[in-house]
Please model this.
Amino acid sequence: MKDIQDIVEGLRRSPGVLSGLVQGIPEGKLDVRRGEGFWTITEHVSHLAQVQPMLLERFQRFLKEDHPEFIPFLPAGGEDGPTTPPLLEINVALELFALYREKQLALLNGLDAAAWRKTGTHPEYEFYSLPILARHVLMHDYWHMYRIEELWLTKDAYLTKVF
Model:
């Protein structure tokens, strides 16, 4: 359970890390599109905020259902939709992210070992469980935060191409 405690602690810290990162970026850099296929910093923060209700629902399903079956989540409208997330005002996005993270943590804090052993099915993964979902959420947070920092600071020749 030590790794689960570390994951939950990481989830607890994510809103502060994200807010501190974004607050340190000059306002003129937030909406700069660094190239075709690149999201802006505001789009990354908006996406992080907008997926939190879906993630909360997935945590709730793990706690309510014996073996939940999930479907893939396709952000920004899926395959036929827009390629960027709808924009939120940056401070609204940060507040929404923090609000939903608190709701997620209220569910996860204090769960017993039996709850953490719950499994589900997800077509993208060979195995899926509550700890995997929690770790996935944590890594998703920090992947986007890494990308935000990269978009802010990295010179064009060194930007990671993700498409």
Strands lie at 119-120, 128-129. The radius of gyration is 17 Å. The mean pLDDT is 93.
